[in-house]
Amino acid sequence: MNGAEVVVNRPFAFPLSPGKTWSVDYTELHPNKMFASQKWNSQYKVVGTETVEVPAGKYQAIKIEAEGNWIAQIEPTRTVTQSMQIQQGDTAMMTRAQNVGPVQSTGRTYKAFWYVPEIGRWVKSVEEYYGSNGVRNERYTTELESFKRSAE
């Protein structure tokens, strides 16, 4: 960003060993039309190994989990409300304009990755995003569908 290298995602910090932890912190400017900026803070941890089954097969994987928070500065907005009142032949038109913001919003995240050293990649991931009210807004799950070793 602006000529500087910024880490925005680091689900793996090799070597992966049970109990290993690391953090990823970054700020994204204008990530969408509602937010002026969004700051992310995530703490990753290697929780151990487990068997995971995906369409590409059954693997012994290293499970990495991350929990974090986000804080967004919502773009300022302007709302305009108009109404009309008619009473005994008289008409009154009212317009109200109101500036709102900037306002701050917060939430939390949960992520899990199942990394298989033998194939050098993750085979499954889950990402969940929660709003300030604690309600999950988004959930994404990805799974490896096929894998073929290249001839060496």
Q: Care to describe what's here?
A:
The protein is mainly beta. The chain has a domain at 21-75 and 102-143: Beta Barrel (YmcC-like fold). Helix content is 0%, strand content 66%. The chain has strands at 21-29, 35-54, 57-74, 77-87, 90-100, 103-116, 121-130, 136-143. The strands form two sheets. The chain has a six-stranded antiparallel β-sheet, with no helix packed on it. The protein is elongated and about 85 Å long. The model has no long low-confidence stretch (mean pLDDT 89).
What brief labels describe this structure?
single chain, 152 residues, mainly beta, YmcC-like fold, six-stranded antiparallel sheet, two-stranded antiparallel ribbon, 8 strands, 0% helix, elongated
Question: Can I get a quick summary?
Answer:
With 152 residues, this protein is an all-beta fold. It has no helices and eight strands. It has a domain at 21-75 and 102-143: YmcC-like fold.
